[in-house]
Structure formats: C-alpha cells, structure tokens
Amino acid sequence: MVLLHVKNGDESQFLLETTGSISIEDLTQEVTKIYNGRLKVHRVCAEIETLAEHGIFLPPNMQGLTDEQIEELKLKDEWAEKCIPSGGSVFKKDEIGRRNGHAPNEKMKQVLKATVEEAKALISKKQVQATVCVNKDMVKDALDQLRGAVMIVYPMGLPPYDPIRMEFEDKEDLSGTHAALEVIEEPEAQLWWAAKELKRTKQLSDYVGKNEKTKIIVKIQKKGQGAPAREPVISGEEHKQMILFYHRRQEELKKLEENDDDSFLDSEWADSHALKRHFHGVKDIKWRPK
Questions:
Q1: Kind and range of the H or E run holding 221
Q2: Under the phi-then-psi rule, with left for phi > 0, alpha for psi from -120 to 50, and beta for the rest, what region is 186?
Q3: Within a domain: 53
Q4: pLDDT at position 202
Q5: pTM (2 decimals)?
Q6: How far is it, in rounded angstroms, from Cα 124 to Cα 134?
Q7: CB-based contacts of 103: which residues, under 8 Å, 6+ apart?
Q8: How many independent structural domains does the chain possess?
Q9: How far is CA 198 from CA 149, 205, 221, in A?
Q10: If we measure between CA atoms, which residue out of 36, 55, 12, 31 comes closest to residue 143?
Q11: CA distance 235 to 231
Q12: Do the beta carbons of residue 87 and residue 105 sit within 8 Å?
C-alpha cells in the first residue's frame, strides 16, 4: 500500500493508504471527500458545543433581536415547544442572539460534549503523528456519532433551519462564511506531489513507480493557485534537533577550552612534592629577605 501524507499548504491533514494502481481521478475524489468531510465534522462539533450551552437555533427572523424587539414585533418561536431536550432544559441566554437559551441539563450536556471530543479525536490531525490513517468510513462514523448524540438529547429533532440539522442533511449554506473558503469542491480540486500536478488521466504509479511501500507527501488545493511551496529539505523537528546538537557541541568545546587552562598548576593540590614536605615538617615555610 502507498501511504499518502495529505497536506493543505504547509498544514498536515491526514494519512491515507491507497494503491499505486489507483487512477488520479479516483484518488482526487477520495482525498477531497475526506478533506471536506473532516471540515464538516469540525463545523458540526462547533455548533453542537453551542447547542449544549444555549439550546436550539432561533428562527432566522428572530436572530439578533432583543427580547423587547421580539415582543414588539409579536414574533414567536414555534419550534421551542417541539424541540425540548431530554430531561428538561436549563435557561442560559445566548448573548449573540442565535439560540433560544433553553439548554439541555448537565447530564445531557455532557453526552453532547463527550461525543464531540470523540468525533474530533477520530479525525484529528494528531492522527498523522500517531501514524493512524483516516478514510471515508471514519469520517462517516464521526458524523454518525454526532447525529446519534443529538437524537439522544433531542429525540423530537431540531428545527429545519438549525445548522446542525442542515449539515446532517447536506443542506448547509456556507456562502459568505470563512468555512466556504476552506471547502474544496471536487471538480476544483488538484493534487500535487514534488511540485508536479498529478494529472487525472494518469495513475498514481505513473508518478511514484510500482513500489507499494512508498510514502509521499501530497498537497490538495484549488485549481488556479499554482504550484504549492516545496517541502523543506528537513522538517521543523529535525531543524530543532540540529540547533540543539549545535548548542550542546558549543558548550562542550567551551568546557574543553576551559580545561586547557594550566593555571591549576599553582594550586596546592597539584604540587607533586606536597606529601614529601608534609612528612619532613617543612610545610608552609615562607622565605622573606632579611
């Protein structure tokens, strides 16, 4: 199996196992799906964290309004009575004005938060350091875990306009958000290796050879961005180790230079005749002119 270390820019994303015989077309689709899937998991996790703190999303026409404005306009959240968390709610006002403030109780809140941590760990960038590969099934499992936790806490479901529900139903609208800039649509995706674009009409083996034990760094980015920056000859960690070695070597050389100093010969302990004079009783004799 060929091991791909997928990056976006200089930032590690995940490891992926594949075969040299895979077409670049299929590989691009797979890498892009995992890349975007991980972004979706992080978006859902962020929203579930606010769901645990402040309850469900307010209707779009009520978001950002004060209580007085809502009362004056006679607006009503029809989903508030339908979407009650299991075990009742605890009121915690959302200062941003996006959610209705009827948060789950502490027990249900912990269910949501624990699941968020598990889902994040499953597709974390730290998996690269642990040499754990990520695949489409792992991304799906993370989303399924999050979906299950939300169903436990909100058995009646979430409002159709809640971003969590929209993410689960693949109806999310990211236009005008920073998240939209991160997503790479599959037709716009390009894979690069060693400053060469991997053409979709070829196979991976056309670039890396027939060795199935190859490990390469592949970068994913949008079309039209040009060739990504080359990988440094040495990694950041290797550079740190080299600096540390150089510093230690300098300290050792400094100590050796200090040891070359022969001023210690004037010390009493360096006198080879000290013992003889001691037994002759002529120790500490000082000569002075008359």
A1: strand 215-222
A2: alpha
A3: yes
A4: 96
A5: 0.78
A6: 9
A7: 52, 53, 54, 55, 85, 89, 90, 91, 92, 109
A8: 1
A9: 40, 11, 12
A10: 36
A11: 8
A12: yes
Rounded (5°) CA angle 146-28-120: 20
Q: Among 94-98, 150-154, 163-167, 203-207, which is the least confidently predicted range?
A: 94-98
The 189-193 sheet, strands edge to edge? 11-18, 2-8, 215-222, 189-193, 196-197
Average pLDDT on 254-282 reads 65
In a domain, 41, yes or no: yes
Give the residue carrying structure tokens 């936790």. 149
Phi, psi of 23 (to 5 degrees): -75, 150
Tell me whether residue 259 is in a domain: no
Closest CA to 67 of 48, 93, 45: 93
Unique residue bearing structure tokens 């597709």: 123
- Helical residues (DSSP H) of the chain, grouped into ranges: 24-54, 67-72, 106-122, 126-129, 136-153, 163-168, 178-182, 205-208, 236-259, 274-280
Residue 254 belongs to a domain:
no
pLDDT at 241: 81
Question: Residue 152 is part of which domain span?
Answer: 2-222
Tokens 């809640």 -> residue? 162
Say which residue the tokens 């979430």 belong to. Answer: 158
User: By the 8 A CB rule, do 65 and 78 touch?
Assistant: no
Residue 290 has pLDDT above 60, yes or no: no
The residue whose two tokens read 């999310």 is 172
Whole-angstrom distance, CA of residue 152 vs CA of residue 134: 27
Say what the pLDDT of residue 269 is: 58
- Percentage of the chain modeled with pLDDT above 90: 63
pLDDT band at 226 (very low <50, low <70, confident <90, very high): confident
User: 281: number of CA atoms within 13 Å, CB side?
Assistant: 0
